[in-house]
Every structure is written in structure tokens, then in C-alpha cells.
Amino acid sequence: MVLPICGQGRVCMKKTKTTRYDVADHLRTPEEMAAYLEASLEEANGDAAYIAKALGNIARAKGMSRVARDAGLSRESLYKALSGDRSPSFDTVLKVVAALGLTLRAEARRI
Description:
About 50% of the residues lie in helices and about 5% in strands. It is mainly alpha-helical. The chain has a domain at about 25-100. The longest helix is centred in the middle third of the chain and has 15 residues, at about 30-45. The radius of gyration is 20 Å and the shape is elongated. The N and C termini lie far apart (about 55 Å).
């Protein structure tokens, strides 16, 4: 491999361009969305705002306007509810989960 030489015998390096990672760009199928929500539920450790943020990421992947319409909420209130800055009501969570085409399930915990 030959590296380009800048003046005075120094090796030139190209600048690496980075972009901010957005999980919503990688949630393309209902199965990926469900797996992401399941992983988020496991990691949340009881933090409802964490789950709200995960639902917000899924909603952005699916289209916030569409999810808001299907959930019967305004787009603005949906953004606020799923920002991760606060915990939305359980009623809102259920509406959003249904609008996303997902379901919540319970399973017995192993002690």
C-alpha cells in the first residue's frame, strides 16, 4: 500500500467524516422494531422515559405523522410524549404501541 506524501516527507491523512448515529434509520421492518422494543424493555430497568424514547425512535422510523394519526394524537403531543424527557401515560403508550403495529406481552420472571 502506498500512502500519499505531503510536502517535507510527511504522510497526508484524509479527514474522516462522521455522522450522528440514528437508530431510526435502521428500523426497517416490523420484526426489527419489535426486537428493538423488546431489547429496550429489558435494558430500561423500570425507567418509563427510556421506554418512551425507544417508542419515539420506532415512531420516527415508521413516520411520526402517520403514527400520531393512527394513535389519535396530535403530532406535537406525540413528540413530547416520546421525547424521553418525561414518562407518558400508560394510555398513551398503549395507543402508540397499537399504532406501531406492535403488542406488549407479559411473561413470568424466573426467580
